[in-house]
Prior knowledge:
This protein is an alpha/beta fold. The chain has helices at 55-63, 65-68, 81-89, 100-108, 153-164, 182-187, 198-209, 234-239, 241-260, 262-272, 279-290, 305-318, and strands at 24-25, 40-45, 71-76, 95-99, 113-118, 125-130, 145-148, 173-176, 193-197, 213-217, 228-233. The chain is 37% helix and 16% strand. Residues 1-22 form the signal peptide.
Amino acid sequence: MRSFIARTAAAVLLLSPIAGTAACGADKAAEPGKAAAGSEKLTLTLNWVPYGEHAPFYYGLKKGYYKAEGIDLEIKPGNGSGNVIKAVDQKQTDIGWADTPVLIRSVATGMKVKSVGVFLQKGPTSIQFLADKNIKSPADLKGKTVGGTPGDAIYVTFPAWLKANGVDPKDVKVVNVDAAGKIAALAEGRVDAIQGFFHDQSPTIEAKTNKKMDRLLYADWGMNLLGTGIVVHDDTLKAKSDLIKKFVRATQKSWAEAAKDVPGAVDAMAELADNEPAKAVLTKQLNLGLTLLDAGSGQPGVNAESKWTETLDIMAKNADLKDPGAPAKYWDKSFTAAS
Length: 339
């Protein structure tokens, strides 16, 4: 098993150039940049190094869902949603997998990108802690120390989330922690809790500490921010709309089928990905991630406009998003529209 690098739970909003990373895909021996005969090459950059949430993409590769759509897909690890979105904007990658609040902030700064579908529609934004801390509600955070990374959507909205739940932000101490250091800070007892994505970080911490984790999910306490989804450059949506529709269709199938075959999805990722966590951690991460899909919207990735409006309203009130406008500024729903 290859080593696993801990990722940040809330994708970083600072937009620095994406680091060069090794590609991973179904055919690792294929010559870079060249598609198989009769197919078109697409590069997908993930929001971080591979973890359980990404298993459906590798499952789709293994099962040939992308190949069936005429796509030769290359998957690359990323370095935070902000970096991935910047890479899409600069046309350094065809498609990004990124957190929606980061996308919204990126579009607001002038980047020419859009979401074509959010898959984790119940946002994974949460406050995580060891279960023996006996934290059951936001009120139990009074007097506690919470680790967070400045610039993260979770960090920015944390005071408003506390206020909405009757807690004075002054009663909770927030300690600034580097994104990649939050897991260690909690595991070593330097903080009582961390801000992050529970479906990624909690299984990793449990594996490191052999202790059970628990969380307070923002969405369960009155503040749902849409999670990760597919991000594409505006020019690509116009010039290659049919190809992007095929990619979305294959991705929807990959997620739907992976949900029915979690062991198969985990095996596919273990075979095809680099630097992935152990299978036991992958399985927990994927199972937790699947709980965040919104089956009420139909197929994975099909969004209700009301959920976009809700996220935009939260960010306008609590994350300094000026004049957000309509969801269509950030999201093109036509790529997941039912046929």
